[in-house]
Records
---
Amino acid sequence: MMQNELLSHYTSNLIEAGCDEAGRGCLAGPVFAAAVILPRDFSDDVLTDSKQLTEKQRNKLRLVIEARAVAWAVALVDANTIDEINILNASILAMHRAIQKLSQLPQLLLIDGNRFNTYPEIPHQCIVKGDEKYLSIAAASVLAKTYRDEYMLNIGLEFPMYNWKNNKGYPSKMHRQIIVEFGVTPYHRKTFRMVK
């Protein structure tokens, strides 16, 4: 599916919120999630899965989404909670928190992926690779990713040796080597396999 072929909606008459997360595979930092309700006539030739966009494109799209969305919200779940309830449950909890913060209640949730815990009184539809298929999920992926990257830049100032400015907490070879040398920080997920 090409970028400009993303679908604007799943149903013909319901208020839909697209939901996605960022940071599931990281060794450090929270998992972020976003929920976005777009106008039915929303279109954008660039918007797609955030992983397929450059940082510059994502940051530009974030401003477009925030300006044009009917409603949007971003939420996080920290590393300690991820260790307590596991990353899948933490990702779902982050989505629930984002949905709860929306200024307008959606009638249907479009969830990126194949797993979700029902949100009270709102039906949902799980869509594998939904951020490559639906504009609202792609928009949520952009917000989750840009807000998480911004967060990692800020906490990276506390621990500059981990290079979170560049690796954003993901398990790069350098990040793993730094963990061997310096150990873990309070932002690291202790239940994750830090070094190979």
---
Amino acid sequence: MLVSIHPQNPQERSIKQVADCLKNGGIVIYPTDTVYGLGCDIFHPKAVERICRIKGIDPEKANLSFICSDLSDLSIYTKSITTPQYRFIKQYIPGPFTFILPASKEVPKILKSKKNTIGLRIPDHTITHAIAAAVGHPILSSSLPGDMVEEYTDPEWIHSKFGKLVDIVVDGGIGGMKYSTIIDMTEEQPHIVRQGVGVVECL
């Protein structure tokens, strides 16, 4: 199903439709401030496993991340965050960054890496924020399977390619082609793991 949502003024009914799908264990493809991504409710292990099958990856080796609606989720899903780390993260969110942080006990086991960490994102995108807020807790964030190609920016093309594998494809307009910048926050000094569209001036 292709659901069109206005990128600046998301229709409440459409956001609820997507959120209800996620809360019921569905899988959606949705826009972010970088690329279109695969998502599900983080508390539905079978949905997470389904995404891993679509991508052809092992859930235990996937290093999946998730999207939060705001900073309040930091204290719930991460632990041992220092004041300098919090201030560092705060200056770059919302934005095209993924922060690797120590996972708390609230993070489902299937989403934790072998190092007991989690990738956390707060995108600067109205639709993404609205969906996560409507769900009431974070949603999974994973790139579409295969190599990134220009067609992956077009939601109608995405629907024709992946529509039968997911429950909803959100049409929020043309997406980007560059990934988020990944920053490892598990050590005293943050360091960039992957340089993406997000630029950090102080590292």
---
Amino acid sequence: MNRRLLICYFENGKDILGATRIARENGYKILDVYTPYAVHGLDEAMGLKPSKLPWICFGFGLLGAVAKLWYQIWTSATSWPVNVGGKPLRSVPAFVPVTFEIMVLFAGLGTVAAFLIVSKLRPGKNPKILYKGVTDNRFSLVLIQEDSTFDVTAVKSLFEKYNLIEMEERIEKESE
């Protein structure tokens, strides 16, 4: 099945932010917004939900800390108990520095792996340039034209005050 897209190019970050807000307020369906750098407040303007990545990071960090703490207690008290200088075998304060380092390692690597899996990025994947100049200096807002009542001239007049550079209509396959 094909979908009709309307790609609108803007001058700068303030313009794309304002156009995104006004498009959402007027009920247009936003497919995505492409910018050459991060624009503060764009996720709120698009109506995106907060990311679950911090919770994934917390979970991997907790997993790493618990696993390392268990491993250190098991090796020092159960598997190979060695009494060094009268220190207790289950001396948790002695394990804190290494446990912290492993926690940070698990959190970092787990978060990167989760991000790559969720975003469907993988090593060797060829990037697909969707719209001209979006990685250089263009700001583009992509709207989905859902039905025949979608009025391109109304969208153009709506975006004129946000320094609309150009508009482009495109038909794409949904599987792309």
